[in-house]
Design a protein that fits this description.
With 149 residues, this protein is mostly helical. It contains four helices and no strands. Helices cover 79% and strands 0% of the residues. It starts with 7 loop residues before the first helix and ends in a 5-residue tail after the last helix.
């Protein structure tokens, strides 16, 4: 059987590299969500006395909630290590490596799906933050220009 799977080690390395890349990307997306959350918090503290402040605050809160959604931890499949040990302890090494490779692929696929969802929510949070900032800016300009609305 060892000769029947000559690429197993190479595939295992590639799965590990892919998982590491997705985890790094997830960390970057979550860092950006933290920045959006902080900026949304700052925008809620700012604003003019104009009537534009209320919609700007609402949109700021929505941006913060979208950023929190990005920061919410996703659920990844995990191996039951004790059960895996018990099931594969007496199996041939390459067969066990193949099983571990398959479960590693499942983890990579779940991480990819989780990252896709986080990225979509980050985009929403960023758009909402930009809208909140625009509402604050317009409201301030209108108030300062004498419109006082």
């Amino acid at each position: 059987m060892p000769e029947s799977m000559p690429s197993l080690d190479l595939l295992g390395e590639e799965v590990r590299r892919e998982l590491d890349a997705y985890l790094r990307h997830t960390d970057a997306v979550e860092t950006k969500a933290g920045v959006v959350l902080a900026a949304a918090g700052a925008l809620t503290a700012l604003g003019s006395q104009s009537s534009w402040r209320v919609p700007a605050l609402i949109v700021s809160v929505l941006a913060a909630l979208a950023a929190v959604r990005v920061l919410w931890p996703g659920v990844l499949p995990r191996r039951a290590l004790r059960e895996t040990r018990d099931a594969y302890l007496r199996s041939e090494r390459r067969f066990t490596e193949l099983m571990l490779l398959d479960s590693g692929i499942e983890v990579v696929e779940a991480t990819q799906r989780n990252l896709h969802i986080k990225t979509l929510w980050l985009k929403r949070a960023g758009c909402l933050l930009a809208l909140a900032a625009a509402l604050h800016a317009v409201g301030t300009i209108v108030f300062v220009a004498g419109g006082r609305t």
